[in-house]
Each structure stands twice: as C-alpha cells, then as structure tokens.
Amino acid sequence: MCVGIDVSKERLDVHVLPQGQAFAVTRDGHGLSDLVARLQGLSPDLVAIEATGGFETVAAAALAGAGLPLVVVNPAQVRHFAQALGQRAKTDPLILSLSKD
User: Fold this and answer.
1) How confident is the model at residue 91 (pLDDT cuts 50, 70, 90)?
2) Which of the chain's ends, N or C, has fewer CB atoms near its CB within 10 Å?
3) Is 15 helix (H, G, I), strand (E, B) or coil?
4) Which domain of life is it from (predicted)?
C-alpha cells in the first residue's frame, strides 16, 4: 500500500493506493494529528510527500516522528515521470491513475 501526499499552504491532499481512497486534512496540528492516526491505522508500505517550497517540512516531521515509512520526492522528478508516460499535466488524479496501470 502506498500513500501520496500533495502539499499546499492550507491543506494536505492524501491518496491511498491500491484502494483509491482520497481525503484531505488541514496543514495544522489538528490535521497532522488526524493524518498520522489514519495512516498508522493503514500501515502503508510507503508514504511519499512532494517537496513544496518548505510547506512539506511540518508534515514530513510529523510522519517521520510517528515512524511511518516516508520519502520526500522532488517535484521535478514527478513531472519528468508524468512526461515519460506521455502525460502533459502533473496532477494528483493523473499520477494516481497512471500508477494504477
């Protein structure tokens, strides 16, 4: 099971594969606490979070501190992955649909 997290200033968009589950939490103490609890319950093999101008650091620290298997990915590499698959846009639904194939 893999979890992908897209980070923005206000919230974290979370996608779980292969279940196709998606949810969002706020990027604050309450949201991070909820995220950690939900992910610990799922016991994912990997949690990938995209580096987003420093907004990812608090979330990455919370996830790593909880002992979840975390990797911070380079957004340029995610973009190149999408391009290599012939996709012009790099959006979360797009990346999720590609990873299911």
Assistant:
1) low
2) C
3) strand
4) Bacteria
Under the banding of pLDDT at 50, 70 and 90, the label for residue 89 is: low
> What residue ranges define each of the domains in the chain, with the CATH number in brackets?
2-73 (3.30.420.60)
| Token pair 């779980």: residue | 16
**Higher pLDDT residue, 68 or 97?**
68
| 87 contacts: CB under 8 Å, gap ≥ 6 | 94, 98
User: Can you list the positions of beta strands (E) in 9-99?
Assistant: 11-17, 21-26, 46-50, 70-73
Separation CA 51–CA 45 (nearest Å): 19
